[in-house]
């Protein structure tokens, strides 16, 4: 046997011996390398160690955690002295989950000095993209409907102007109806919005705004019948999207528009 072979054999024997010793120590419970030299624990000071502070299992709650969304909305809405301040308050309201899936906060469109405030339900896909209410097919029909009685969102003249907003400023997924809890948390903003604009007449389009302002549903029964909400005359009408699906209902919508025109004279 050559010298190289003998050295290789000794190295292999040492390696196997070290591995066997390590396995024995691990089996005995010595599974951590503490130091190169042994330590006599009895020579250490006998000071009682201080307990470590327990680590929280979850991040500390944010200031809004557990807050009542309606109460938070009421406080934020009450602090808004102008429409711009209200826009910022709504954009900063983070307790409605619809905001997470929306591209834009859809606030309003039209002349804030208008005598007629139109309250819709919620933005659709086009409105979410553009950040303005009623800009899709239903919005185009709405413009044509009210133009027939000389009212327009683009009119600088308050007598012939419209102001348009929605109950919900964010699009519900799949254009589903807003849930009662979602309506409730946004209602303080709607009420403040109407108070700041102070219109002569409110027109609600569809079940969601009807429910928000009156607590009742059944827009097909309510349409055309004047009532009161927030101290204002309120006219329920079917939503333009409904009219697109049911063209025969346009005759009733025309009667409602004539009723509105008569009220404004």
Q: Mind explaining what this structure looks like?
A:
By secondary structure, the chain is α/β, with parallel strands linked by helices. The protein has a single domain, classed as 3-Layer(aba) Sandwich (Uracil-DNA Glycosylase, subunit E), CATH 3.40.470. 42% of the residues lie in helices and 10% in strands. It has 10 helices and 6 strands, in the order αααββααβαβααββαα. It is elongated, with a radius of gyration of 35 Å. It starts with a helix and ends with a helix.
What is the strand and helix layout of this fold?
Layout: H1 3-27, H2 69-78, H3 83-91, E1 108-110, E2 116-120, H4 125-130, H5 137-147, E3 162-166, H6 180-197, E4 201-205, H7 207-214, H8 219-222, E5 227-229, E6 232-237, H9 240-245, H10 250-264
Helix pairs in contact: 2-6
CATH superfamily: Uracil-DNA glycosylase-like domain
> What is the total number of structural domains?
1
CATH architectural grouping: 3-Layer(aba) Sandwich
Distance between the termini: 120 Å
Low-confidence stretches: 44-49, 51-63
The H-and-E topology, N to C, reads as: HHHEEHHEHEHHEEHH
Give the biggest beta sheet.
6 strands, mixed
Compute the number of helices. Answer: 10
> What is the subunit arrangement here?
single chain
Q: Mean pLDDT across all residues, rounded?
A: 86
- The CATH class: Alpha Beta
Cα Rg: 35 Å
Look at the helices and sheets and give the structural class.
alpha/beta
Shape: elongated
The spatial strand order of the largest sheet comes to 1-3-2-4-6-5
Fold-level CATH name = Uracil-DNA Glycosylase, subunit E
Strand content: 5-15%
Helix content: 40-55%
The beta-strand count equals 6
């Amino acid at each position: 046997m050559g010298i190289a072979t003998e050295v290789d054999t000794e190295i292999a024997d040492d390696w196997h011996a070290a591995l066997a010793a390590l396995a024995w120590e691990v089996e005995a419970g010595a599974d951590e390398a503490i130091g190169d030299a042994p330590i006599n624990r009895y020579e250490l000071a006998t000071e009682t160690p201080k307990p470590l502070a327990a680590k929280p299992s979850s991040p500390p709650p944010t200031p809004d955690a557990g807050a009542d969304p309606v109460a938070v909305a009421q406080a934020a809405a009450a602090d808004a002295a102008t429409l711009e301040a209200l826009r910022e308050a709504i954009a900063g309201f983070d307790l409605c989950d619809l905001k997470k899936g929306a591209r834009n906060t859809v606030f309003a469109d039209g002349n804030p000095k208008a005598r007629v405030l139109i309250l819709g339900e919620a933005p659709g896909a086009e409105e979410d993209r553009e950040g303005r209410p009623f800009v899709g097919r239903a919005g185009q029909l709405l413009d044509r409907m009210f133009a027939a009685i000389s009212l327009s969102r683009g009119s600088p003249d308050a007598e012939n102007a419209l102001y348009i907003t929605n109950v919900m400023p964010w699009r519900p997924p799949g254009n589903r109806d807003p849930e009662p809890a979602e309506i409730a948390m946004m209602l303080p903003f709607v009420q403040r919005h109407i108070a700041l604009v102070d219109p002569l007449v409110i027109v609600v389009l569809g079940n969601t705004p009807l429910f928000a302002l009156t607590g009742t549903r059944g827009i097909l029964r309510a349409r055309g019948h004047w009532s009161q909400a927030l101290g204002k005359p309120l006219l329920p009408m079917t939503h333009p999207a409904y009219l697109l699906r049911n063209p025969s209902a346009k005759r009733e919508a025309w009667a409602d528009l004539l009723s509105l025109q008569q009220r404004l004279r």
